[in-house]
Amino acid sequence: MPLINFDDYKPGALFKRAHFNTMYPAFFRRQCKPKYERVRIDTPDDDFLDLDFIKKGNNKVAMLCHGLEGSSGSQYIVAMSRLLSKNGWDVLAMNYRSCGGEVNRQPMLYHGGATYDLVTVIKYLEKSYDHIDLVGYSLGGNLALKYLGEAPKAVSKKINKVVAVSAPIELGKASIQISRPSNWHYNKSFRDSLVKKLLRKNKITPEISIKNINKVKTLRDFDDRFTAPYHGFKDAWDYYSKSQSIQFLPFVKKETLLINALDDPFLPKECYPFELLKKHKYIHFAAPRYGGHLGFANFNKEFYWIEEKILSFLKFGI
Asked: pLDDT tens-digit profile of 231-266?
């Protein structure tokens, strides 16, 4: 597919500052949270996943996958849920393990390559819907792309279209990027949230040790000391190399849209695969000049540019 030139996002002066565009929605956006219907499903390893639905009897559903330390209550998930629900979709906002408000049972959490949980949820949706669209944000975008490409013959036939937004498709280089001094506030926020969750987790499953937790200063530290060993990886770099979706993109065979803003403070240059995707048969790639990370914000608008783009793609394609 030719690369897509989305040049119609024309933000005001403040939103041309990547950090402002990234932080504004999280701190100032006010979306009315939908009345989700929560469904808890079991996983094959005797754990559970909490799924939040908006059901209106449609035969198609949009499955939304949040980013690192997000949830069905994240502002970008809430906004997309409301817009899709208004336009003919049932909506499922997935919560990863321990992200739905209750700590999961197994001595593990979630990570950027845990597509086995996506498979469990998609199999559950197949029982009720003819048509499944998948939208992943940040870490969830990496998950969605990995799911499509790691075993393309096993991808559900009911998957219709897929969107990935602000996706760190090269996890190793992205871990370096977010550890840069200019990103210290994001790194600290994620680190603090993950450490707090791990402390809660330790009370439920003491098999997860909190030894040396005070030495965790960066996301990469956390992944090296906790994510990797408790999810079957040798270390953080083994986790990144096996979980990053960039290696699976050539094998994607579902119509897909990847949108990564060029000014995204979380993403290194390796997350803009222009050469790899310019002749891809199924993946459309757009790299708008502005947008920040999961931003694409506008003043005084109920729905942002990114949400309108996702809706348009799911309805009409490119």
From this structure: 999 999 999 999 999 999 999 999 999 999 999 999
Burial profile 245-265: b = 16 or more Cβ within 10 angstroms, e = fewer: bbebbeebebbbbbbbbebbb
Q: How far is CA 126 from CA 38, 61, 68, 80, 156, in A?
A: 18, 10, 26, 21, 8
Task: Kindly list the strands in the beta sheet with 37-42, ordered across the sheet, starting from the edge strand earlier in the chain.
Answer: 37-42, 48-54, 90-95, 60-65, 131-137, 159-165, 255-259, 283-286
Question: Residue 164 to residues 14, 252, 257, 260: CA-CA distances in angstroms?
Answer: 25, 13, 6, 8
Pick from 136, 168, 164: which is nearest to 267 by CA?
Answer: 168
Report the C-alpha gap between 172 and 223 in whole angstroms. 11
Look at strands 255-259 and 90-95 and give their pairing.
unpaired
Q: Which of 9, 88, 61, 7 is nearest to 301 (CA)?
A: 9
CA dihedral 315, 263, 177, 188 (to 10 degrees): -90
0.85 exceeded by pTM: yes
**What confidence tens digit (pLDDT) does each residue in 59-104 have?**
999 999 999 999 999 999 999 999 999 999 999 999 999 999 999 9
Tokens read off for 133: 């669209």
Please check whether residue 318 is in contact with residue 4, taking contact to mean a CB–CB distance below 8 angstroms. Answer: yes
CATH 3.40.50.1820 fits 14-170+244-316, yes or no: yes
> What are the beta bridge partners of residue 259?
165, 286
Nearest to 170 by CA among 93, 78, 55, 247: 247
